[in-house]
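Sequence design from tokenized structure. All designs in this work follow the same two-part layout: the structure record, then the generated sequence. An example of the structure record is given first.
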């Protein structure tokens, strides 16, 4: 029976005090008695009691040391919470936790004496001197030593590892930290001179990176992989995982073209755009199965890995040419059930909207543009004073269309844990996002269950199950309009001046600019476009380990999607009973089904310093899709949007389907010697139904080498290099493939949408409309990569640099035009052309910790040079010497702008006469027209004539050359702060159509155009806008593609700012953690674009603005 137990059972009150004194007096005698072998104060102790008490911790210590606690009940409350999670630590470290509870501890002759620290002992101070060393005894410079319980009192170690702190409480506890090392807490117990040994953080040493079909130790990875932790993603309040990834990784460019809820139109490009024919999209795998990145809830993500080079991506062969994104969802962890919640409430607002002149100024400027009094002075005055808004409206369709803010809520609940036999993770998520346009919203409900059950010591089964139900609703145009979409409504609101009222004073809808009503009237109609989708994903695997080194796994996966899209266009009644068109309904159902079966054998062995890992696998994939649709018009009521309510007179039906299949064999061999010399060889043999039988299979190999020079003896022994903790050089090369061009590109297909006349009646028929190429084969990308990874001062500073070169050849491309004028057959996809992407990636990181204060900085920078080397059949030499056409020219990036260089505008007739003859572009130039430069002539030099055949050139590209991001964070006690800046440079934007041209297609005029136009009375050679003119849809001489309309589309965006506060645990002892935060996304953008236009969207027409989001959130776990 322990001394503690004996005293508590037989004594109370003053008697127990007396007994306490007697036991202390007898302690020397007790010390002379033999002690049990376990009664050691230097044994390692493990205490895993996240919900423990002082009493339960005391019991754990007694059981593991053989020592007994001695205390007075008046000093010690056994039920007081004491939460500890310590593994293999010293007794001193455990006892330091008692000190934090105001108890002093002393080990005497087999007893641990606890007593309430006296005011005298608490106030006694000493000077502490010490030294901090690593496991080999070498001193550690710049380690942080902090006195716990004080306001940051502490010191840094000097070059010899020494430190000194004055006026330290004798019973204080020191916390010693250094980046890359496991922190230690040491109780002084009156000591004035101590030596502390820090050990390398085993978690950092064993940090793993998700790779294809498995994981690898980060230190042994020789390929180019970027990885983001799920915790970093949840710091952003984005409803879309793609947006959350923006700027997080070098070489990965995320571009957002729209802010519409559930329809963000994002693109992800890994190391540039790798094809001008096939799809440039990367392969996305969720827990090893292809899936949609937009369907994944950010709160469920454990990590996102991007495989960027051939050595890492070749394991996925024919679909890896544009990179591979591996999303790993969370699994169960911890030794108890954990319930957590993450949610926020927020508001979205547009980041930018164009500013238009008021209607009276529009009327005045239109007179100037046309040179005729389209509006009289009286009419202009009526627009200005608003005396008769039925005839002279003062509306702003665009700003009235978009709300100033819209709510957004997101809730996510998880339950996870682990036992000896199983681990489990379950979550439920609910997202509601209201759009900036009325009747526009997006909802998403999803549930996930991931679990692993150990059926025996060497057999386990795992399953990842995910179900999602989403709905996206948008307004659309009513009957009578040519186009049916929300974007078309935005386009019309952007185009037309608000001179026509939406509603008359009588309550009727006005006729609008085109006798169809205004965009605002369309929004108020009962028209809608609705999409509902249900998705179910199942991924089940069985793992068997006959021996420790060998794992055999079988994986079966299935994705099933059902969606229904309804496009209802109601009728609308305007002024005087006018109905522009009948109502109509288009209802379409789509079902797609994907299934896969994969089997892998993985052997891992460590023989001395030789590490070997070999993977061999087989994969089969099958996909099928079916759709069916029906359409009717003249519905009996706008309140009954159902097919059976419509008239059968003009009904239409449609349907179809596609199928494809793949099978593959793949393998990977990894070898390392002492984690110093690294080798990886990978290969995949793919077969695809997309190609003909004699071109169906292809092999995609890769190889990589790495050298951790920091592990060499000569490096470790060099004193001048001891500040470099890790230095690894690596190089890789390989070939990847791309097959994303269509399902049946090599097969002759009959087009059923043709009609033939028989007599006076047209009958449906079929015909071949495209030529085909049975030799069509894989698009291939040859890559090589070289770089280094470094860590300085045990991880305080990291620097990673990579150079890459990607050459894509046999590009899958469908040229325009026809095979011949006789046959009229269109050209089907062929293998033609070569494209390169070369660049540099730089990643830098810094972290610092001092006591309760910490901060970190991470930055990444990517430079990409994209160039076309050959177009194959498109190698057409122009008269100006360039080879190519459209926006594809050899020696230049894809997606270029091809046009004229300019030098301002003409100021007067004398200026026109002195300039090169540009009558081939502008037969009659006048002051205020754009001056186009004469670059070349038939003789290869300027000839005084501006000619489209000689004087057009490459002006720039819409693809950024530079992408960059800078993120930082800091924390002090419970307060945390993070911020991210993100941007691009070396990119051009084109201000055409409604973005650049005033009065385009009878359209509006923006404030920047009005204020910066050329004025004959104030001639400015470099006016930002030429003379005003009415511009038809075909354009004018001033709207030719030229650098006059190009703008620098570089930008720097404050992507995210978040500040949070985690409440102290003692405030809410029943809750493990509770954090409140305020977050903002897309707060401000620095750019040179005209006001209201976002350079990231880069459009001249309809656009849904990118959203600025402010959210207030809460995280807690039990």
């Amino acid at each position: 029976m322990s001394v503690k137990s004996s005293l508590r059972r037989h004594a109370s009150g003053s008697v127990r005090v007396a007994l306490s004194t007697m036991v202390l007096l007898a302690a020397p005698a007790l010390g002379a008695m033999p002690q049990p072998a376990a009664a050691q104060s230097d044994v390692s102790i493990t205490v895993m009691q996240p919900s423990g008490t002082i009493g339960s911790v005391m019991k754990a210590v007694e059981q593991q040391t053989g020592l007994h606690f001695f205390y007075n009940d008046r000093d010690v409350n056994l039920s007081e919470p004491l939460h500890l999670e310590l593994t293999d630590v010293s007794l001193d470290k455990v006892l330091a936790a008692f000190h934090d509870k105001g108890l002093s501890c002393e080990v005497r002759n087999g007893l641990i004496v606890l007593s309430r620290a006296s005011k005298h002992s608490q106030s006694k101070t000493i000077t502490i001197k010490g030294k901090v060393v690593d496991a080999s005894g070498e001193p550690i410079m710049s380690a942080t030593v902090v006195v716990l319980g004080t306001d940051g009192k502490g010191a840094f170690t000097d070059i010899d590892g020494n430190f000194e702190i004055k006026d330290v409480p004798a019973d204080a506890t020191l916390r010693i930290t250094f980046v890359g090392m496991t922190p230690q807490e040491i109780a002084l117990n009156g000591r004035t001179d101590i030596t502390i040994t820090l050990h390398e953080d085993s978690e950092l040493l064993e940090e793993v990176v998700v790779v294809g079909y498995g994981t690898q130790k980060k230190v042994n990875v020789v390929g180019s992989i970027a990885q983001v932790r799920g915790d970093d993603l949840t710091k952003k309040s984005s409803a879309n995982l793609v947006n959350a990834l923006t700027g997080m990784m070098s070489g990965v460019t995320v571009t957002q073209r729209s802010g519409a809820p559930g329809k963000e139109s994002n693109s992800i490009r890994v190391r540039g755009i790798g094809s001008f024919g096939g799809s440039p999209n990367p392969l996305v795998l969720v827990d090893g199965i292809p899936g949609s990145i937009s369907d994944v809830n950010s709160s469920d993500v454990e990590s996102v890995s991007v495989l960027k080079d051939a050595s890492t991506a070749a394991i996925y062969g024919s679909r890896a040419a544009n990179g591979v994104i591996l999303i790993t969802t969370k699994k169960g962890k911890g030794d108890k059930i954990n319930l957590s919640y993450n949610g926020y409430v927020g508001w979205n607002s547009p980041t930018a909207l164009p500013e238009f002149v008021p209607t009276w100024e529009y009327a005045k400027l239109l007179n100037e543009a046309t040179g005729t009094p389209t509006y009289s002075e009286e009419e202009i005055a009526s627009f200005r004073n608003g005396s008769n808004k039925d005839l002279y409206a003062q509306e702003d369709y665009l700003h009235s269309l978009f709300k100033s803010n819209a709510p957004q809520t997101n809730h996510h609940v998880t339950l996870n844990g682990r036992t000896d036999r199983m681990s489990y993770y379950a979550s439920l998520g609910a997202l509601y996002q209201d759009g900036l346009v009325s009747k526009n919203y997006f909802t998403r409900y999803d549930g996930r269950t991931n679990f692993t059950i150990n059926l025996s010591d060497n057999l386990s089964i795992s399953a990842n199950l995910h179900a999602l139900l989403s709905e996206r609703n948008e307004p659309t145009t009513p009957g009578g309009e040519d186009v049916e979409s929300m974007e078309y409504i935005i386009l019309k609101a952007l185009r037309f001046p608000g001179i026509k009222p939406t509603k008359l004073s009588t309550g009727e809808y006005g006729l609008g600019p085109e006798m169809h009503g205004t965009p605002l009237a369309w929004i108020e109609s009962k028209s809608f476009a609705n999409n509902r989708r249900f998705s179910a994903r199942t991924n089940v695997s069985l793992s068997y380990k006959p021996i420790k080194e060998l794992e055999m796994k079988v994986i079966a996966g299935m994705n099933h999607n059902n969606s229904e899209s309804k496009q209802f266009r109601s009728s609308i009644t305007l002024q005087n009973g006018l109905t522009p068109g009948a109502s109509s309904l288009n209802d379409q159902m789509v079902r797609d089904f994907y299934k896969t079966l994969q089997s892998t054998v993985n052997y891992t062995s460590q023989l001395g310093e030789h590490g070997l890992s070999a993977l061999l696998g087989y994969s089969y994939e099958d996909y099928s899709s079916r759709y069916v649709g029906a359409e009717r018009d003249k519905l009996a009521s706008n309140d009954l949007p159902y097919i059976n309510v419509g008239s059968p007179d003009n009904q239409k039906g449609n349907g179809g389907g596609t199928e494809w299949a793949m099978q593959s064999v793949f393998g990977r061999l990894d070898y390392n010697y002492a984690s110093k010399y690294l080798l990886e060889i990978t290969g995949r043999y793919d077969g695809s139904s997309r190609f003909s039988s004699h071109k169906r299979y292809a092999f995609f190999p890769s190889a990589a080498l790495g050298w951790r020079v920091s592990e060499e003896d000569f490096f470790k022994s060099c004193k001048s290099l001891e500040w470099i903790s890790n230095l690894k050089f690596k190089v890789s090369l390989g070939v990847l493939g791309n097959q994303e061009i269509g399902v049946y590109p090599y097969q002759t297909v009959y087009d059923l949408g043709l009609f033939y006349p028989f007599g006076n009646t047209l009958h449906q028929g079929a015909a071949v409309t495209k030529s085909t190429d049975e030799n069509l084969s894989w698009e291939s990308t040859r890559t090589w990569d070289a770089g280094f990874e470094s860590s300085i001062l045990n991880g305080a500073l990291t620097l990673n640099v990579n150079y890459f070169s990607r050459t894509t050849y046999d590009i899958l491309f469908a040229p325009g035009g026809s095979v011949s004028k006789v046959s009229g057959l269109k050209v089907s996809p062929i293998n033609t052309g070569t494209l390169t992407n070369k660049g540099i990636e730089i990643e830098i990181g810094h972290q610092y910790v001092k006591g309760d204060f910490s901060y970190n900085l991470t930055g990444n920078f990517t430079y990409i040079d994209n160039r076309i080397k050959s177009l194959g059949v498109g190698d057409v030499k122009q008269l100006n010497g360039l080879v190519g056409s459209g926006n594809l020219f050899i020696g230049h990036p894809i997606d270029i702008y091809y046009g004229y260089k300019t030098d301002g505008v003409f100021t007067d007739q004398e200026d026109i006469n002195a300039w090169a003859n540009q009558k081939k572009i502008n037969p009659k130039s006048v002051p205020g027209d754009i001056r186009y430069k004469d670059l070349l002539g038939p003789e290869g030099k300027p000839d005084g004539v501006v000619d489209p055949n000689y004087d057009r050139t490459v002006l720039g590209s819409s693809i950024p050359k530079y992408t960059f991001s800078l993120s930082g964070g800091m924390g002090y006690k419970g307060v945390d702060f993070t911020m991210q800046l993100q941007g691009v440079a070396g990119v051009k934007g084109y201000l055409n159509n409604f973005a650049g041209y005033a009065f385009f297609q009878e359209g509006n005029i923006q404030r920047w155009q009005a204020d910066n136009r050329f004025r004959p009375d104030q001639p400015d050679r470099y006016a930002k806008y030429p003379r005003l003119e009415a511009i038809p849809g075909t354009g004018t001489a001033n709207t030719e593609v030229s650098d006059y309309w190009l703008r620098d589309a570089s930008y720097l965006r404050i992507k995210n700012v978040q500040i949070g506060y985690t409440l102290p645990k003692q405030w809410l002892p029943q809750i493990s953690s509770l954090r409140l935060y305020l977050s903002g996304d897309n707060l401000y953008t620095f750019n040179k674009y005209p006001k209201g236009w976002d350079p990231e969207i880069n459009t001249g027409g309809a656009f849904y603005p990118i959203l600025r989001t402010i959210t207030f959130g809460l995280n807690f776990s039990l």
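The radius of gyration is 36 Å. We note this feature because it recurs in several other targets discussed in the main text.
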